[in-house]
């Protein structure tokens, strides 16, 4: 599976732009602030129905415009599929495949999987549990549609339960029977989600370990563990034991929405003991291990998006990373870099097919076109 062409209208800093991609490696070069990262985000948007960097769709509309449009042609199993995304201020987002609009955006997730590696990903190590749960949910949702459905239902039920808890907190009225109803539904979806997360981490850990060693060039042991109170006690008992505290606080204190991932290096928590370089390698390995995990199980190989890796990793780690993602087990890759020659020199040595695009002043041009213009 690969992206063959994409066009942008009023997306971020682009009034209008398009390019045809190589099915192997593509590198966007240009100065900082030129819009290289926005191109990666446009690809991510067409795959995941949302931006990697902005929580609100309207934030992606170019300043002064009232809408943005993205359209991409993906080739999957030899068949061309056209994906369209349109966001207009004050209106519902449109998302289409082959001109047919989705009734639910969730139906699109997983058709064209993608893995993004960005400088902000270091938050996976340094920030709170919500960031790591999001990573966990995004990975599983891209290959298990039922998991995504359960997750959506769980959070809807959780919202209803929390609303009831806040009402009970304010009025101190009896509401045990109603809470029992919400608990039964929460337990049903929560148990399925917990089981799938547990299986995923048990299978994923070996891919994470191997990928880290490939990038870091070291044999130091790493691990990722699934932390959940449900590992020791059933959700029903947790809800029963915590009911009064939930009422006092006005929210649900137990469940899969409180789970976490523990990243370890040399048997110690990476958040406290890993250096910045080690943290960057851990996060990159965590992201790319998604790829080898999905490929090993026969799922569609994701498109890999690598943002600003040359400036965020040392030269040796970058070299090992690029050798990894251009190997036989990976597919299409998109990279951003400020240096127009650095990526080209690397890929010329490896013999991997690639294209280099220069990004400047809201335009995207193949580097060969620029060279021809300079010679003239």
Could you describe the 3D structure shown?
- The chain is α/β, with parallel strands linked by helices.
- It has helices spanning 36-48, 123-126, 129-141, 145-171, 176-216, 235-241, 243-249, 270-273, 276-296, 309-312, 315-325, 342-350, 367-375; strands at 2-11, 14-20, 25-29, 67-76, 79-88, 94-97, 100-101, 114-117, 222-227, 260-265, 268-269, 303-306, 333-337, 354-360, 363-366.
- The strands form three sheets. It has a six-stranded antiparallel sheet with strand order 2-1-4-5-6-7, covered by helices on one side. Strands 8-12-13-3-14-15 form a six-stranded mixed sheet, with helices on both faces. The protein has a three-stranded antiparallel sheet with strand order 9-10-11.
- Strand 10 and strand 11 (268-269) form a beta hairpin.
- It is globular, with a radius of gyration of 23 Å.
The largest β sheet comes out as:
6 strands, antiparallel
Number of helices: 13
Into which percent range does the helicity of residues fall? 40-55%
User: What is the helix/strand order?
Assistant: EEEHEEEEEHHHHEHHEEHHEHHEHEEH
Portion of residues in beta strands equals: 15-25%
Q: Count of DSSP E strands?
A: 15
Distance between termini? 38 Å
Choose one word for the global shape. Answer: globular
Mean pLDDT across all residues, rounded?
91
Strand order of the largest sheet: 2-1-4-5-6-7
Please give the radius of gyration in angstroms.
23 Å
Q: Which structural class matches the secondary elements?
A: alpha/beta
Low-confidence stretches: 369-376
